[in-house]
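Per your request, structure below.
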């Protein structure tokens, strides 16, 4: 049976390399569509969890995962030799940045080396990890063609960016349209056929390079627009205008405007990282991606701005930062998720600690936090703890937080997420919000560069 027929009949054996935030939901979706799926991860703990039918990704329910495992449609392993038995493989490994903000494609290279070892005629390989334009063609194709097999004839290769939005309750793997670009038209065709089996809408583009660029446009678009509203928040601070009121009113325009909101800075494994992949690639062509650089600069200032607000708020109450007890409320990079990768909360905590503050944190999704100064455990959010705290800094607006109760028990609240909306009148000088009129002179913060 040819690959196309096997896919249509859902008889193809599928593989996913990297079972994290992207790979695990993808594997479950494939298995639920009736495919036999093998997940390959270098972390044996993840493999054990899957085999024990326990999900470690909040968006994947253990019951759904368990049903797939029990039905024999999903298995996990660290053993890459299983690749030889697969008809199609999706690569979902991390793509971080090095310290110098250069792409770190070592995880991709490692996965591709394993695929190369077991590559067989008729196999389809799809890269889903976010990366710079040209990775699929320049790195992966070259490597896999090193076997003597030819792309588009003997094996098939495509790029399909993952768009998952952790914590999003309306859009998951199945109902988020998926862009696919192959190295050859046949590669695109087969990759479209694969994803069409379990994703509602698949959008083919002309090449893998175009598909890589689509993802980078999407994430650069977010980074630039977040930077714009972060700067707007600073402007509004200076001018005594409420940035949130301005954004919400602008969002009533039925065309030509999309609302973004200020915050303590960028976080997660995508927005703070991916635009740098594009900028790095363009550097080799003597092209400076100016918007990317400027957006990063503005967004990186935000933790400093938060800390300046803390300083201003404590100062107004006659307290120095040094020795003050500060509670960071929420450390995940966004609401209702447990992911702390690149979270601006880590920078805010570091900056406050460097000023001598005694920092603790509370996050219902993050029981333990590794910081530069060691590891911390989440402090219970009790009345007593709030009363003993000099300043609460809201860094993540988790839905479970009872913000009115928290503010009523706190001496000072610095709000970087507009979580205290509507409470300003009631609590007056107790709340200092980024991007809102200052309740007292001296509360305006002008971020210094980090
Ligand atoms: N997390 C998101 O919201 C999101 C959204 C869209 C795109 N992406 C992109 O998807 C990719 C994966 O991100 P993620 O958040 O799922 O990462 P993750 O860290 O949650 O998961 C990656 C997994 O890959 C495993 N792994 C690493 N190297 C491996 C190897 N050589 N062989 C087998 N397993 C290996 C790790 O153990 C881990 O379980 C990244 O490129 C990211 O930019 C992520």
């Amino acid at each position: 049976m040819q690959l196309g027929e096997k896919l249509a009949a859902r008889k193809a054996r599928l593989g996913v390399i990297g079972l994290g935030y992207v790979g695990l939901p993808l594997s479950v979706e494939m298995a639920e569509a009736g495919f036999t799926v093998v997940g390959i991860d270098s972390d044996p703990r993840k493999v054990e969890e899957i085999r024990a039918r326990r999900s470690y990704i909040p968006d994947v329910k253990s019951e759904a995962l368990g049903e797939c495992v029990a039905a024999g449609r999903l298995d996990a392993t660290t053993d890459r030799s299983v690749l030889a038995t697969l008809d199609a493989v999706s690569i979902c490994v991390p793509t971080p940045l090095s310290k110098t903000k250069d792409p770190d494609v070592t995880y991709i290279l490692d996965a591709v080396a394993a695929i190369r070892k077991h590559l067989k005629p008729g196999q389809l390989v799809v890269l889903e990890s976010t990366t710079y334009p040209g990775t699929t063609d320049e790195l992966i194709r070259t490597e896999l063609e090193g076997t003597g097999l030819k792309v588009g004839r003997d094996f098939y290769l495509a790029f399909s960016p993952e768009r998952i939005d952790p914590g999003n309750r309306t859009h998951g793997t199945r109902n988020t349209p998926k862009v696919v670009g192959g190295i050859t038209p046949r590669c695109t065709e087969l990759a479209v056929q694969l994803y069409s089996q379990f994703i509602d809408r698949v959008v083919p583009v002309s090449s893998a390079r175009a598909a890589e660029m689509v993802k980078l446009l999407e994430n650069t678009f977010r980074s630039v627009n977040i930077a714009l509203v972060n700067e707007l928040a600073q402007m509004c601070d200076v001018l005594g205008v409420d940035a949130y009121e301005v954004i919400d009113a602008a969002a009533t325009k039925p065309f030509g405007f999309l609302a973004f909101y200020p915050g303590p800075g960028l976080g997660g494994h995508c927005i703070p990282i991916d635009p740098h992949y594009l900028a790095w690639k363009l550097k080799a062509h003597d092209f400076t991606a100016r918007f990317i650089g400027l957006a990063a600069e503005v967004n990186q200032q935000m933790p400093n701005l938060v800390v300046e607000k803390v300083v201003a708020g404590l100062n107004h109450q006659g307290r120095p930062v040094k020795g003050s007890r500060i509670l960071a409320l929420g450390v995940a990079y966004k609401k209702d998720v447990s992911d702390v990768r690149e979270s601006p909360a880590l920078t805010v905590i570091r900056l406050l600690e460097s000023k001598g503050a005694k920092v603790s944190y509370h996050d219902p999704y993050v029981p333990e936090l590794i910081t530069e100064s060691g590891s911390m455990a989440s402090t219970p959010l009790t009345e007593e703890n709030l009363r003993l705290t000099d300043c609460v800094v809201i860094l993540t607006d988790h839905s479970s937080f009872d913000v009115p109760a928290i503010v009523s028990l706190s001496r000072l609240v610095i709000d970087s997420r507009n979580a205290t909306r509507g409470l300003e009148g009631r609590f007056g000088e107790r709340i200092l919000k980024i991007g809102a009129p200052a309740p007292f002179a001296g509360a305006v913060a002008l971020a210094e560069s980090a």
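The first strand starts at residue 13 and ends at 17.

Regards,
D.
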